[in-house]
UniProtKB/TrEMBL annotation, chains A, B:
Keywords: Oxidoreductase
Gene coding for it: yfmJ
EC code: 1.-.-.-
CDD domains listed in its UniProt record: PGDH
Source species taxonomy: Bacteria, Pseudomonadati, Pseudomonadota, Betaproteobacteria, Burkholderiales
Name of the protein: NADP-dependent oxidoreductase YfmJ
Pfam families: ADH_N_2, ADH_zinc_N
PANTHER family: PROSTAGLANDIN REDUCTASE, PROSTAGLANDIN REDUCTASE 1
Catalytic class of the enzyme: oxidoreductase
GO molecular function (one): oxidoreductase activity, acting on the CH-CH group of donors, NAD or NADP as acceptor
Domain Enoyl reductase (ER) per the UniProt entry, residue ranges: 41-339
Protein's organism: Polaromonas vacuolata
Length: 344, 344
């Protein structure tokens, strides 16, 4: 145990709150010894961290659906890791787990925090990073947002923005499996080609190089029954002009607005909800925590059968955390963005 | 019959489409003989017309939830009248009816248009104008919007804007009857006093003289579970900051935005829907047409028992149509705005 106590734990801590896009100055790299494991606790070596658009919101002061990260704290991050020391009978050394690890090399979870960490064992044979993508929080978000809030019916047209992202790829693939026509919106030809050719979407609009209004007109001739919105802003407003009677819009995020230094742009076409008797509803994945096992069982099955795919974009090294986060906001990541902190 | 044929029918026709607030120039006063009643048709003398914010939308080019009024056409308007000639066995001379009469003194409904006119007989003992208010389209809108979309539960806090208006008074009174706390938003002390003292709302915020944000804070200490929105704009945005987890926002209209010459202001705080897993849904009353009798039976009962009230603001004379319409948009009307075209 003594060599563990002495392990140095490198960490990314929040140094200050950003205004607009985060910069290097908002981060502080620290290190401290791992410390003692008490009875009931366990120590996890971080292998991969999930890089999420939601992180930008956690950096702001003021409570949203979750408390903000405090100045000086280790940045909040979900991840997968390997148990390297355990005083808890439910976890053995060598177990692979998914948990709220934080942006650090090692995570010591005390007995009292086991539940709060959301820790659960994972099957590494499905690919470690898959557990941060289709089988992780983004996957759960897409699965429950689409199925519970969206209530898709066979033959309906589903549009999803951020289509090549972690949530988007889950939403689009699940929608196809439920018999829907699926049109993605993504940035760049490579991403659009991938969701159409690899995942099988019916079409994908490249918002960086195409006219989204024209694209919707062309690919959604009968209108949009379900829109799963990850981006907000102008694209939400355009889709609102194409929704059908009784349409459902799932508000999952608004990545186009997270780094605004001015007021958020509200959807000017929201009265389309009135004309179309449509509904716009927010989703927070934690509400479905009890049913994660159902979603994981269903989607693991699809993955094993090759009926569903999972693509990750992997950046190496904890020191790359600040730059990796920015990739999310300029749309550079191709697939679920993952920071690999250690090999095994 | 010959004297009927020769009756001159004064009418208000749409002369041009307004940009912003309608002016006298957008209207054309015309008159023409009533004409022949064919088999199956009937002739109705207009007594009262319903003056509705939605009229502003019907004056615009382009289809919304209903076709626009064409240039030169008699302006669309619902109203109550008395059958003065009938070639239809279902209606007798002397019957009082509610129908889409148009802004004119007489309405000749041909057999083929009977259904489309939405005509039904009314009980005049409940008050003719009540049939344009709580028992008319606004009442149906409030009833089904609140109950079907809002799904109120006893003890919940319901906020309604345009509280002294036709829809607002129905929503607030129905919400109280369903056991909710009700907070109105209205313009001016007289309206606020009326909804609190006469109708029994728990509170009413005077948006013309009070800080709405402060008012919501004071009167909705546990947040807003249901917001019935008739106004849009700044007030919708303020209420969004106060909604509770799982809140329902019913989008019924946006009177603050109907005369905009610039783009509609979208709700900048719409991401509150995400944080609060809340839903914003539009309602168009026609969808509930089959169930109007249920609502009318229930609310007639409350009216007869004195458990519900109905207040109208009556303007006299068809020639007042253009000015009367403007009263809706500067908030001058106190209660459902009705244009009395004839006494009986």
């Amino acid at each position: 145990m003594s060599e563990i106590k002495a392990l140095m734990n490198h960490q990314v801590r929040l140094a200050s709150r950003p205004s607009g896009m985060p910069t290097q100055e908002n981060w502080h790299f620290a290190s401290e010894p791992v410390g003692n494991i008490q009875a009931g606790g366990l120590l996890i070596k971080t292998l991969c961290l999930s890089m999420d658009p939601a992180m930008r919101g956690w950096m702001n002061a003021g409570k949203s659906y979750i408390e903000p990260v405090q100045i000086g704290e280790v940045m909040r991050a979900g991840g997968v890791g390997r148990v390297i020391a355990s005083e808890n009978p439910l976890f053995a050394v060598g177990d692979y787990v998914n948990a709220g690890l934080g942006a650090q090399e090692y995570c010591l979870i005390e007995k009292a925090n086991i539940k709060r960490s959301g820790i659960f064992k994972i099957d590494p044979s499905l690919g470690l990073t898959t557990w941060l993508n289709v089988l992780g929080m983004p996957g759960m978000t897409g699965y429950f947002g689409l199925l519970e809030v969206g209530q898709p019916k066979p033959g309906e047209t589903v549009v999803v923005s951020g289509a090549a992202g972690a949530v988007g790829q889950t939403v689009g693939q699940m929608a196809m499996l439920k018999g829907c026509r699926v049109v993605g919106i993504a940035g760049g030809k490579a991403k659009c080609d991938w969701v159409v050719k690899e995942l099988g979407f019916d079409a994908c609009i490249d918002y960086k190089n195409e006219d989204v209004r024209e694209g919707l007109k062309q690919h959604c001739p009968d209108g949009v029954d379900i829109y799963f919105d990850n981006v907000g802003g102008e694209i939400l407003d355009l889709v609102l002009t194409k929704i059908t009677r009784g349409a459902r819009i799932i508000i999952c995020g608004a990545i186009s607005q997270y780094n605004n230094t001015t007021a958020i742009k509200g959807p000017a076409n929201y009265l389309s909800l009135l004309v179309n008797r449509a509904r716009m509803q927010g989703i927070v994945v934690f509400d479905y925590a009890e049913n994660y096992p159902v979603a994981i069982a269903e989607m693991s099955g699809y993955l094993k059968e090759g009926r569903m795919k999972s693509r990750e974009d992997i950046v190496m090294g904890l020191e790359s955390f600040p730059d990796a986060l920015l990739k999310l906001f300029n749309g550079e990541n191709f697939g679920k963005l993952v920071l690999q902190v250690a090999k095994d």
